[in-house]
Amino acid sequence: MAEFAGSGGAPQPFTDPFDPSGFDPSEVAAWADTLGPTTDLDGDGAAETVVADTERWGVGGDWGDGLVVATDTDLDGSSDRLSVIADDGRYGVWEYCRELDGSGRWSRLDTGSLEYDVHHGEESK
Questions:
Q1: Is residue 14 assigned to a domain?
Q2: Domain range spanning residue 92?
């Protein structure tokens, strides 16, 4: 099993920091939309992405500080792709999907761990 940074292994019992009961991507995206885009990820000359730390958002909680990347892929003024990386390397990716009836929902596309080496010694090179 992969080790999480600084923990020596998975928490017992393992807790998913992006469990829908404790993490709402629509809330994070709405917060990011209030900041306004500052970054052009796709190189088209238009800023469509907000990059901010979670401390600024104020989540903390089970997974500590981290990074939020919220992108407005269709340039309609609302984030529709969200990536969150926790300080221990765990991450989640969501996309806003429009249904045929016009309603929308956030769908989790990916979740996992970056699984990096926290020792950084000569033996880890």
A1: no
A2: 25-114
